[in-house]
């Protein structure tokens, strides 16, 4: 442990490398990063303080997740001051985050601050006893844009693919206000959404950070956590591992409330001391299973979206072919006499349309197959310049589009395919040419139509089964196998499984739905309500 003289010397050194914020006591300083990367092609912003050297200094990686407004930003700064051994009597406070209020921001900056981009803080100062990487996720539950929460999951997956240094996680810190005393549908959704990000192997590395705490055990908040069935590390009494923090260390000193402010300081630093002891003893977990969960989530979302479009297309095509069959029956005499006739059908066609820029803040482009004319990944991997990196690709081929085309056949633009219908007049001669039927073999036209209908039905069946297998895989590897994310699609899949005569698979999904409980169905209703307002 550093002596008082050495500690003060370290603080003076950091002050000399920092920018002062305001003029009150404690004196606030923003530590200037050695690197502050804003590469828009990457799924994260990166701020690095100091240089990471190959030495024996311990290195820890933690991930912060939680609802908007819980105080994650303040907690990060508490961690940094704790690591720098700052004491209250030093009358200084260091920050590495951008703690601008909405009043201080321009409209543009405010919008940027509310996007789903991750921020990675690399803290490698010599004055700190350990190296620390903090992955800070945007807050969950922004009622103005529910899609932001989906983009957080996509950003985490993309981070794991483009940054090899993020291979292990020492702790996932779920940040919760200690004042939570009951679970609203919104709160259930947020807790559920956070848990649905991770693999089941990471449960013992998840800890609870209760903020805005007065120091007493947060009984109501802990009850809410248990009701929400949050899986996390447990202590020797089989209770959730949690740490308590107040959020006012950087506030101006006030003689009238000096005792309270001192208690607040001590309270938060005691919580941080306990947390870092936990970090010393916990075994880091590979990010691989969580990466697989994120990938399966992503693929399920893409497959369901594609399936819904494809089912609509198949049904429209079936309708077109049935109209053609009816026209053949209606004109039996012309068919028999090999005479041409005209009839009208409703046909489907694809049109490339612009993506609504208001719908997704980060994901303004879609990955589409130019051969199949399908939206393979929308919302897509917005950061990936090389489409072989798209999470829908496996062995350089798409796992979603009908023909499983090579990634080079795909394009990424701010456009998607939309299916539309129109009335079209056709002739019997056109029909025979289309199905390559000889004029003297008119009966074969009906046979060809039947074969085409069967092909379309097989295609639909394949898509339904692929989507079911995504849910099945999540059941095996996800920390939260019956998440609201899965429940959003489950009724649609149950209906389609019954249509293709797969009652056992449908029952599997019905059991997941029953197991989820009323609380999650309330949260599902909350999401649908928000989506309905868009």
Automatic annotation (TrEMBL):
Residues 36-56 have a biased composition (Basic and acidic residues). GO terms for molecular function: GTP binding. Pfam families: AIG1. SUPFAM superfamilies: P-loop containing nucleoside triphosphate hydrolases. Signal peptide: none annotated. Keywords: Coiled coil, Nucleotide-binding. Residues 290-334, 414-466 form a coiled coil. Residues 32-56 are annotated as: Disordered. It comes from the Eukaryota. PANTHER family: G DOMAIN-CONTAINING PROTEIN, IMMUNE-ASSOCIATED NUCLEOTIDE-BINDING PROTEIN 10-LIKE. This is Uncharacterized protein LOC113042718.
């Amino acid at each position: 442990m550093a002596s008082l003289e050495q500690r003060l010397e370290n603080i003076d050194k950091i002050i000399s490398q920092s920018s002062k914020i305001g003029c009150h006591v404690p004196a606030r300083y923003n530590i200037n990063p050695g690197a502050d990367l804003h590469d828009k092609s990457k799924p994260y912003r990166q701020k690095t303080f100091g240089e990471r050297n190959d030495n024996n200094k311990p290195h820890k990686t933690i991930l912060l997740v939680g609802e908007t407004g819980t105080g994650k930003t303040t907690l990060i700064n508490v961690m940094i001051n704790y690591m720098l051994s700052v004491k209250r009597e030093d009358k200084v406070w260091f920050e590495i985050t951008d703690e601008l209020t909405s009043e201080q921001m321009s409209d543009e900056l405010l919008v940027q601050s509310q996007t789903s981009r991750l921020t990675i803080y690399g803290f490698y100062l010599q004055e700190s006893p350990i190296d620390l990487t903090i992955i800070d996720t945007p807050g969950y539950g922004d009622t103005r844009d529910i899609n932001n929460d989906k983009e957080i999951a996509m950003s985490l997956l993309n981070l794991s693919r483009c940054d090899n240094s993020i291979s292990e996680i020492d702790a996932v810190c779920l940040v919760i206000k200690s004042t939570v005393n009951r679970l609203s549908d919104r709160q259930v959704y947020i807790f559920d959404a956070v848990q649905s990000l991770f693999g089941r192997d990471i449960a013992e590395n998840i800890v609870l950070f209760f903020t805005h705490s007065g120091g007493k055990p947060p009984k109501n908040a802990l009850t809410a956590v248990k009701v929400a069935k949050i899986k996390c590390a447990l202590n020797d009494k089989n209770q959730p591992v949690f740490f308590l923090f107040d959020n006012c260390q950087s506030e101006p000193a006030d003689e009238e409330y000096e005792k309270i402010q001192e208690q607040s300081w001590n309270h938060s630093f005691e919580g941080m001391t306990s947390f870092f002891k936990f970090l010393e003893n916990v075994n880091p977990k590979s990010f691989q299973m969580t990466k697989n969960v994120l990938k399966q989530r992503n693929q399920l979302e893409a497959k369901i979206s594609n399936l819904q479009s494809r089912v609509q297309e198949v049904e429209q095509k079936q309708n077109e072919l049935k109209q053609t069959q009816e026209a053949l029956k209606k004109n039996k005499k012309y068919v028999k006499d090999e005479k041409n006739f005209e009839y009208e059908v409703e046909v489907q066609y694809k049109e490339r349309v612009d993506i609504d820029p208001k719908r997704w803040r980060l994901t303004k482009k879609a990955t589409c197959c130019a051969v199949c004319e399908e939206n393979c990944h929308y919302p897509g991997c917005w950061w990936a310049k090389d489409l072989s990196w798209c999470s829908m690709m496996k062995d350089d081929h798409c796992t979603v589009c009908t023909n499983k085309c090579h990634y080079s056949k795909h394009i990424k633009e701010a456009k998607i395919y939309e299916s539309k219908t129109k009335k079209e007049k056709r002739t019997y001669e056109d029909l025979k040419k289309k199905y390559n039927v000889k004029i003297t073999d008119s009966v074969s036209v009906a046979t060809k139509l039947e074969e085409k209908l069967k092909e379309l039905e097989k295609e639909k069946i394949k898509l339904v089964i692929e989507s079911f297998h995504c849910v099945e895989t999540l059941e095996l590897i996800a920390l939260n196998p019956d998440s609201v994310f899965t429940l959003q699609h489950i009724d649609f899949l149950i209906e389609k499984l019954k249509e293709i005569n797969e009652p056992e698979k449908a029952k599997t999904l019905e059991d997941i739905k029953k197991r989820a409980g009323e609380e999650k169905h309330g949260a599902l209703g909350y999401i649908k309500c928000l989506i309905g307002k868009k």
